[in-house]
Structures are given as structure tokens and as C-alpha cells.
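To whoever picks this up:

The parser on our side crashed when reading a file containing two proteins. I've narrowed it down to the boundary between the first structure block and the second sequence. Both blocks are reproduced below exactly, byte for byte. First block:
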Amino acid sequence: MSTLLSEEKIVPFVEALIVEAGDKIRKRINESTSYEMKKNFADLVTAVDQDLELFLIKELQNRFPSHYYLTEETNPTQTVEKDSNDQFIWVIDPIDGTMNFVHGFNRYAISIALCKGEEIILGFILDVNNNTLYSAIKGAGAFCQGERIQVSNTSSINNSLLALGFSAEQWEQKIDVVSIMTAIAGAARGIRITGSSCLDLADVATGKLDSFFHYGLAPWDMAAGSLLVQEANGICTGMKGEPNFIKSNGILVTNGHLHHPYIELMSRHV
């Protein structure tokens, strides 16, 4: 990885690219109310999502022509495999929080991660409205605007603030929604459902949140953010503690102190 980083100067290139992409979104904010539904009424896509994804792929392909792409709108079936150790794959979400974007709720982000085989080695998240850039390098730390970040030290669920989210299918069909809320109500200090898993992950990495969990996420929803959390000394697993959270049914993210307590709490209710 060090050769890739030093010879091709990949980090400053991607940082400049994601900032440029954020500028493009802000210039098209008036188009946010025009959308299409995908799986159901809670799963939306806009022309801005689609155009931005094509822009990012084109720019990265020009710089790295031998790399592959796993993206929400145009390449959703590309896989991240353990056996493909020499294969570089870019995992991209052009707008994480499309529903927020459509409704004018200013919490959405761009997420770009680079995997080598199954290993996530770089992650970048841009909070579009605040123009705040988060980045992580495998083995070298996590950063917000170039400053190193760290998860919280909260050690009790009673003192914790967490975020959660539901898949579009869960929300429409009310699958586990009531049981999940019942498990957390009265246990944690508070719950936030913000509509952007990438920014929720970033908030765990900076210590603003103590935990985050979500069922039904795709790799582009969590690849960059999970590396951010891990490099900030947090823990990411599946909901039952599975190490390969990218391929699990859900992701549980904590500051580390709260991980097993949350696994135990959720196992009693879901």
C-alpha cells in the first residue's frame, strides 16, 4: 500500500476529487426534488446521484485504468473478494442520504473507499453541507480536516448516544422496527436516526456518537466509514459480532467499550 500511496499520490488526488464532487452537488441543489423510486417509496435516486457517480468513476478510471468499481447506481454487483488480493476496487456512494437531499434536510455525504481484495485500505467521506472532509488510511490513522480523530471513552450504555437506521424494506414492512426501538428505549441516553450512515460512522469516529448500528447496508454505505472508525480505535462487526461485517446482514459500530454490551442487549430483543 505504501508504494501505491507514495508513487501515485493517491490520497491528495482523491481528497481534491471528492471536494470537487461536493461543489458539483451544491451547484445542483435546486434539482434535488426531482427523483425516482427504486425498490420502494423509501428508496430514492436523483439525476444528481447518477451524474456524480459517473463523474467520479471517469476521473478515477483516467488515473487508475486497471482498477474496478463497486458503486450504488451503475456497478452494484461488483464484489469485494478475499481471494482477489491484487485487485483494487473503488467503492463509491455519490450521495449517502439521498432522501435527506430530496427533502432539503442538510445531512448527506459523498463516500469513496479503496479496497485491495477484501481489505479496505483508504476511506474518504465528505460532509457536503459543512464541506468537512474525513479520511482514513489503513494503519496510519483517521482524520477530520487533517486533524487526527478518536472515538469516545463512554463505557456505559446508560451514558451513550447512538444512531441507528433501517433498510428501505424494514421500514416499509416494519420488520424489527418496533423490537429494535424497544431494546434501546430506556437503555441508552438517546437515539438519533439521521438518514446518513456515512456521517453517522464519521460521528462515531470523532466521538460525537458512541455507537451506530444498521441492518441491510450495502458496501458503499459503510466501507469508508468503517475504516474511519477502526482507525480512530473503534470496533466494527456484524450485529452478532461477526468480523466480516461487509457481508453480514447488519453492522454494529462502537467505541469499543460498548461493543459487547450492545451485542448482548440486541440479542435479547431482536
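<<boundary where parser fails>>
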Amino acid sequence: MNKMEIKKLIKEALKEDTGKKDITTEFLFDDKNIKGKAELIAKEEGIICGLNIFKEVFLTLYPGFIFHFSVKDGDSVHKNQKIGEIKGPLKAILKGERTALNLLQHLSGIATLTKSFVEKAGKIDVYDTRKTTPLLRELEKYAVRTGGGKNHRFGLYDMVLIKDNHITAFMKEEGITDRPEAVGYVVRKAGEKAKGRYKVEVEVGNYNEAKAGYLAGADIIMFDNADEKELKRFVNYLGEKRKKVIIEWSGNVTLKTIERIKRLPVDRVSIGSITHSAKALDFSLKIK
């Protein structure tokens, strides 16, 4: 996300929170030139992410804000650790506090959860999905990278991912009753249209579908909520050709199940929960 898009997002977020004005702050403080200082404190352990976004909220309100931070994005923080301090107009600090903290906490929560998965995943790569908050996708995917994860496609425009619903709809439209046959057909059709410009991935549920997708030229085979025996059968079928295709595992991936999944013959795992279910990491901003 470029800086102009971030500025636009922050302005909309501030507008949502303040409306026409922050009536509490306006009622209490008549002098708009009062200077203030506040300390940013971590209230729990985790990975911090979003400091530049945090800063940008206050710079949007007043470009002369001064910041001093002792950490950077991706660093570990502990409970009650002073992260840094900000100096600027008191009224601007009070107006921007909640918006800045909300963004910082949300992104830090994603980075923290991602890091937990990465640490447990061993040699397999941890990927995110498109299960993100509308309009926050680029920021959330940045948080995933900050936590050591990798980004799957950013949208419907940068990669072909043939999912279960695509296959079902195609079978209905074309009158095909054999699912593996349909998998092969849609992969070939997408590949012909992609012409090497885009990777082609297909979601499968068993060995026969995986084999059909592979023979049709899929770059990535995603086993989604599949039986592990089906995956192993497919890997045995590939034999020496195993490295010619990327195998992805998806579905019901938790911090508990990743311990088992990491021992499967897969290259990577995609996890929707790292963006849609990450718990915010708690921070506070205290006026000093």
C-alpha cells in the first residue's frame, strides 16, 4: 500500500471516530496550543507491527509530531515495556489515540499469531489467505510478513486459484459428472488462458483430483480438508517428479494441528486464521 493510500485510509478512520469534532477534548481544553507528551506501553508479550501507521495517524493531525521509539516492526516486546514516546499538541494526541492504537494492536496481533505458527511449522512455509478485513488487506499481509509468514495471492487478479466452487459450477455448466475429469479440464483451460503470466493453483480433496490437476499442468496442488492418506498416495505417485509441483495443505490448521501437519510431505500451509482471527496485542498510550 503506497503512502497516499495509507493517508486516505487514516483520514477515513479518524473521520469515523471524531465525526465533526472530539467534543470531550474540545469541551475540556480551550487552548489548542497546549503541548503534550505520551508514552506507548506494551501491555503483553508479542511481536510489534505497525509503528509507521501509528505515527502517520498523529502526523495526519499535526505534521510536527516528534517520535522516539526503542523498537522496530518485527521486534519482540514484553509486558509493561515502554516502546517509546510521542510529543505534540495535547488535543491531537487525545484525538488520534484510539485510531492509532487500534491499528497498531490489530497488526501486532496478526504478526504475533503468525510468528507462533512459523515457529511451530518447522521447514514448511506459512502462508496467509484472502480472509482479511476489507480495505486492510495490504496492511494485514504486511503484518503476516512481519511475523515471518508469506503472502498468498493479494486478490483475484494476480494468480489463478481454482477452488471447489469453481469446479462445481463448471461441472454444472458443462454437464460433467466426473470430478477428477472436471479438475483436469479447468486446469488446462486456465493454463491456456494464463499463458505463463500467472501461476495456476487448484484445490483438491483426494488423490484422483490431485493427479488430474498435476497432469493438466497445475503449478500448485492444494489439499483442502483432505485425508492425509490421499496426500501421501499422490506424493508416492509423483516419485522423482515430486519437485515439479508445489503441494499446499489447507483447512483446520491450528497451533495444535500444525504439529502434525509439519510432518506431512507438503511445501507449505495456508492459514486463514492468522488474519481473520488474530487477537489484538494490547498497548496503551499514557499522557505524561
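After patching the parser it read the second block fine. The radius of gyration is 24 Å. Residues 120-276 form a domain with the TIM Barrel fold (CATH 3.20.20.70).
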